Amino acid sequence: MVPLVEARALDRTLDYAVPEHLAGEVGPGSLVACPLGPRRWVLGVVLSLGPPTHEGRLVPLAGVVAAPAVPQRLLDLALWVSRYYVAPMADCLRLVLPPRAEGALRRDRDGGWVLRAPPAQAGRLVASDPAEGGTPRQRAVAAALAAGGGTMPAADLCRAAGTTLETLRRMAAAGLVTLEREAQERSGLDWFGTLGPAPAPRPGPSLTGAQADAVGAIRGLLERGEGSLLLHGVTGSGKTEVYLAAIADARARGRSSLVLVPEIALTPQMLGRLRDRLGEGVAVWHSALAPAERTAEDRRVREGRADVVLGARSAVFAPLENLGLVIVDEEHEASYKQDGPPRYDARQVAWRRARAEGAVVVYGSATPRPESWAALPRRTLPGRVDDVPLPPVEVVDMRTQPPGPISRPLAQALEDGAARGQKAIVLLNRRGFARVLLCRACGWIASCPACDVSLVLYRPPERLACHHCGAESPAPVLCPACRSAELSRQGSGTEGLGASLERLLPGVRLVRLDAASAAARGSLPRLLEDFARPGAAVLYGTQMVAKGHDLPDVAVAGVVDADSALQRPDFRAEERAFSLIVQLAGRAGRRGEPARVIVQAYEPAARAVRLGAAHDVERFLGEEIARRRERGFPPFSHLVRGVVEGEDASAVHRAAVALADDLRAAAAEVDVLGPALLHRLRGRHRRALLARAARAADAAVPLRALVDARGADLRRAGVRAVIDVDPQET
Ligand code: ADP
Ligand code: ZN
Ligand code: ZN
Prior knowledge:
Layout: E1 4-8, E2 13-17, E3 31-36, E4 40-50, E5 63-64, H1 72-84, H2 89-94, H3 99-103, E6 105-107, E7 113-115, H4 121-128, H5 136-147, H6 154-161, H7 165-173, H8 209-224, E8 228-233, H9 239-252, E9 256-260, H10 267-278, E10 282-285, H11 291-302, E11 308-311, E12 323-328, H12 346-357, E13 360-365, H13 370-375, E14 378-381, E15 393-397, H14 408-419, E16 423-427, E17 434-439, E18 456-458, E19 463-465, E20 472-474, E21 487-492, H15 494-504, E22 509-513, H16 523-532, E23 537-541, E24 556-559, H17 573-585, E25 596-601, H18 607-613, H19 617-631, E26 638-646, H20 649-666, E27 671-681, E28 684-693, H21 696-709, H22 711-716, E29 719-725
Parallel strand pairs: 8-13, 8-14, 9-11, 9-12, 10-11, 12-13, 15-25, 16-23, 16-24, 22-23, 24-25
Antiparallel strand pairs: 1-2, 1-4, 3-4, 3-5, 6-7, 17-21, 18-19, 19-20, 26-28, 26-29, 27-28
Helix pairs in contact: 1-12, 4-5, 5-6, 8-9, 17-18, 20-21
Bound molecules: adenosine-5'-diphosphate and zinc ion (2 copies).
């Protein structure tokens, strides 16, 4: 009987025969080279072995890729992601590929994966099938390589095969092996500069009653091998100490842990605390690691030298064995949802993975999502560990203030703080110098020709930039419509705020933190260190300043535009505005010195502003959940968004309306809203429909089927449809 492989290459499952000489090496999760057409080889992931599913000759596999196989549980997880998010299987399998496998591949023009050369596994092919030829010396190399597991340092290989580097070079040139530069085994920990060996683990503080209770609850779940918990507590309430105790507990039971943080920038600080408490065995896992670092961390995890993995979103797929605990810190952050394909939500994937592997998930936040609040058992850490009270929050009505980003009360607080040598944080959720360039004479507004949004003014030199497509142009001196010189710059961005702060606080150290200033590798720690130096300083910027960075004593915290988030037509607008205010307030007065928090708003009476200023999470979430129930929004339903886009407005309109109508007809229990008009993006017109259903699959599966069924029609009309399950933006 011919062994049979379903290998996944493109977006179909294909059957291949396993040649006899590879029979022992191929199993579910193996990475294999699949001939596809006369010249191409594509990377395949073996999903299962079985008897032939159809008559006819099967093409034999060409070889096994010299990379660790994907463990069955991660294979299952990737396939689940593909089903739940109705995303192409190939994209989802990519999430669980070992780093080396991806290195051997490049994207083909048709979107398939193509092996760059039959790489190191060619050595194994020759080794396992000597009939395929090669010189004796090449066979010796292949045999040594196969004995060494398919990958080994070139020097060791030369010694083992009794050959020279020159032979290896020639074999590499002939595509029989690949040579890679890997100067030394590097660790992902190097990403933050050189870290020495971890210090001996230090015991933690004795836990408070509430912390001990939370750790006990997690232990109970761990013993049962299932369940999730929401850990609610303000910044400084001791959540991280609970995580550390729970991880140590899991380790003592031989279980590994996964620690997710919402963004890469937050890993150094968490890494420090993990190593401090746990010593060795902590790996770092995120997309900013260099290939050699990724490979090193991957190896440490697979070989069991690391049993704790810390990282951003993608770490949820780390190949840990014996998973016991998943921590999702700052669980309210939207960045847990991937923006591009496959559009998975690491919080949901964590839940699914934990359920399948008998692990427990702990979601932590000062401002949890209504979804978690409504669904999960909860432990609250009341107040801050050392009973430092939360600072009072003053709300300033901006309608009564002179123009400019800084109100009189905030200016006063900043001046007083600077005079005392204290630190301040000011948040403004918009980059650039001014949000709008507008002609006072005729009303012209500078807008992006490709995106239908107003352009943001930057300087120096003065230029206009589109935040959606990145297009930049010099700023006009005269109005292009009426030649008037009365151009006005309205609405400050972070750069404009910086200029105002400079005027207000001459000589005070100002540190800007936004996507632009933090972009370069290593620049974030430098900015934060600069801010932390003794003496007065102001850290200002976008919501990055409100994230969980470990900041020194902050005496003044201000939000410039607390309610700007409310303007957005998103059902989560209030949740976001509320969370931003509470998170920023949590940054001030952490060491017990008197602090001031000032929240500027044009609608000071708005619920999110009022309750945010009062730190009233219970009341806000209670009301928010009631409102969601009434309107049938998550957590009382799942949303699935379909965005149709293309260059021809009427084709987009027709396609979107037809999709919405057909979905209504195909799935009677699904409530379909829209299609609504979205602003144009990169020259492409867009329409979005929003489907609401009891289970995500009720809407996602029929929508995917409709989109796939019409694939050819849509392509012919120059239209593309993207499906987003549980979207974070609506
Ligand atoms: P969070 O993660 O909620 O912001 P942390 O766990 O970082 O809170 O705790 C805030 C500060 O209080 C940290 O410096 C931490 O070391 C300290 N801390 C936490 N729990 C205790 C405890 N039980 N006893 C003494 N100090 C503690
Ligand atoms: Zn004009
Ligand atoms: Zn644009």
